[in-house]
Write a structure and sequence with these properties.
Length: about 80
């Protein structure tokens, strides 16, 4: 292969999942059951600011530029 398998995941949804996980972990005590977890996930998903999502989308160009500049290696993303 000309391109090694060490290229980073450029998908911004990974950062969205991370944000969602942080938000759900702020609930205390932990969810009592799967239904409560689902409810919290939906609540927190809907609570993520639109600006956060737009920033992820608009960062895609720079993500690709950095990935190319580092030959598919580690980037700040």
């Amino acid at each position: 292969m000309l391109w090694p398998a060490n290229s980073p995941d450029l998908n911004p949804i990974e950062h969205m999942w991370d944000e969602l996980c942080r938000r759900v972990k702020q609930h205390y005590p932990p969810p009592a059951n799967l239904g409560q977890l689902l409810q919290w996930l939906q609540q927190e998903w809907n609570g993520v600011p639109r600006a956060f999502i737009c920033n992820l989308i608009h960062s895609m160009r720079q993500r690709c530029v950095e990935c190319l500049a580092h030959n598919g290696g580690h980037t700040r993303y």
